[in-house]
Amino acid sequence: MNIQIFLSMKEKYENISYHIGEIVNNYEDMIEMLNLELEKSPKDKNIIYELELMMHGKKSYHDKIKQIDVFLNLYNKKAQKILGASLCEHDFVDDYIDVDVERSEKITYCKKCSITK
Ligand SMILES: [Zn+2]
Description:
The protein is mainly α. It folds into two domains: 3-83; 86-117. Helix content is 66%, strand content 12%. The chain is elongated, with a radius of gyration of 19 Å. Bound molecules: zinc ion (ZN). Zinc ion (ZN) binds next to loops.
């Protein structure tokens, strides 16, 4: 694959992941609002039903992000090979990625080429 197309696709995947993350954030806001309503009227079936819908929606988008992250990892690995270490004057930075809801993992990557240490 042409390197420019390859890198553009990687960027698009990152965009998709970011925007789905925004959707997940919106679901979380709605879940929080509904939980507050539920505290006021604990037996309201409509709120309970709505809450279930929101949690289901949030989970499905969350799963999507995980799928895309798998693609992104593959793209990043491939990008490392294609670009090669010699082409980049690396500028390494530390970052934390969420492994799941509770855990995050430290990664060190180059700001320019995304290669990880
Ligand atoms: Zn680099």
